[in-house]
Amino acid sequence: MSQKLSNQPLAVECRNVTKKFFFYEHRSTSLKEVFIRKLQLKPAHVKRPEFMLSGFNLKVPKGGAVALVGSNGSGKSTALRLIAGVYKPTEGSVNVRGRVAAVIELGAGFHPELTGIENARLYGAVMGLTRKEITQRMPEIEAFADIGNFLEVPVKYYSSGMQARLAFAVTLCVKPDVLLLDEVLAVGDHSFRKKCLERLKVFQSDGGTLVVVSHDLNTTAEVCSDAVWIDKGQVRLEGPIEEVREAYEAES
User: Fold this and answer.
1) What is the pLDDT of residue 36?
2) Torsions phi, psi of 106, nearest 5?
3) Are the C-beta atoms of residues 5 and 63 closer than 8 Å to each other?
4) Are 79 and 68 in contact (CB under 8 A)?
5) Is the dihedral of CA 207, 208, 214, 216 positive or negative?
6) Is CATH 3.40.50.300 correct for 3-98+177-251?
7) Would you call 112 exposed, middle or buried from its count of C-beta atoms within 10 A (0-12, 13-18, 19+)?
8) Please, which pLDDT band fits residue 13 given cuts at 50, 70 and 90?
9) Between 131-145 and 116-126, two packed helices, what is the crossing angle to 10 degrees?
10) What residues does each domain of the chain span?
11) Considering only CA atoms, which of 65, 31, 107 is closest in space to residue 205?
């Protein structure tokens, strides 16, 4: 982290965060079954916890850009969802300061029956923009998405590339303070990725905070200065992205 950013207030802070998911080995589906199992002195539900994150800590100052890296199932997307508020931590605390926008899953937050324009307006309203602000930003959204007449077509007919274009355009154009991205840079053609990276650099220069989940560390290194390697739900290494990438790739 640069000395300049170290003096900035924290935009994202995760303190000793643990997230458990439960897998049911047996789950009673009726009152009769619950009653019978009680008589048999058996629990109504038999479940076991699966730790996706344990003791996770993260501090990102305002204007910082951090990449979360790790193998599939390591817990990095879970961490991003905790920061976005999609999940609540089982233990610990997550604090995010400012307006948060996230592209966590393609199509997430979009209504498939609504057109691209209708979804853009709905997303802007959810983010707290006024009708006037949304109208003012629509030309910018349309230009960045660059999907032509498909903006008037229901999202359910979009390809994954068009969904990524619309999601990225809408998310950035609502001008968030904290932007969360999960593998969105892996979708779309080369020109789209280049345009996204250029826009992310502008977002950062304006003081925006960025947290990215990606397997493509070469691309991510263009916008992120630091990285956190998550391995089996725990932080394995954190620091400058080049150091983390070298250690991560040495074991991949």
Assistant:
1) 76
2) -60, 130
3) yes
4) yes
5) negative
6) yes
7) exposed
8) very high
9) 130
10) 3-98+177-251, 110-175
11) 65
CA pair distance 76, 232, nearest whole angstrom? 9
105-157 pLDDT tens trace:
655 668 889 999 998 888 888 777 888 888 898 898 888 888 889 999 998 99
Q: How far is CA 162 from CA 21, 26, 127, in A?
A: 32, 41, 22
Task: Check residues 68 and 214 and name the one with the higher pLDDT.
Answer: 68
- Residue 8 CA to residue 213 CA, distance in Å, equals 23
Please give the model's pTM, rounded to 2 decimal places.
Answer: 0.80
CB 83 within 8 A of CB 147: no
Residues with Cβ < 8 Å from 170, sequence gap 6 or more? 119, 120, 123, 124, 141, 145
First CA to last CA across the chain, in angstroms? 25
Secondary structure of residue 14 in the 3-state scheme: strand
- Radius of gyration over alpha carbons of the chain, in Å? 21
Burial per residue of 196-230, b for 16 or more beta-carbon CB atoms within 10 angstroms, e otherwise: beebbeebbeeebbbbbbbeebebbbebbbbbbbb
